[in-house]
Amino acid sequence: MRKMIALTFTLLLTTVLASAQTAQPEKKKDVKATKVAAQTKAPKSDADVQKCISDKLAGSKTITGGSATVAGGEATLTGEAKNAGAKSGAAKTATGCGAKKVTNNITVAAPPAKPPKK
Asked: Which of 51, 52, 66, 85 could staple 79 via S-S, CB 3.0–4.6 A?
């Protein structure tokens, strides 16, 4: 009986150790390296930042009449958003394009009026 228990334990231990050696640990994402890579991809001049933001706002389905002006790395956004999420998304887009500071003057469209009940 003891030999059977010892053999089972040894087999189990061997299986666990073999599994541990073949399994590779998950790689942690290097957040700092990702931020540095994102910063190096962003345009540098105000004109490049403004063009990047304007192009992305023009292609947006949730922002109408979207435009941006950039001076000294500070972007000012204008236009009309369908909802508050689209408005905050526009600010994130500006930051992603390289704006150091964003003034978000985009207005949120009022919800459509409900028809009166009969």
From this structure: 66
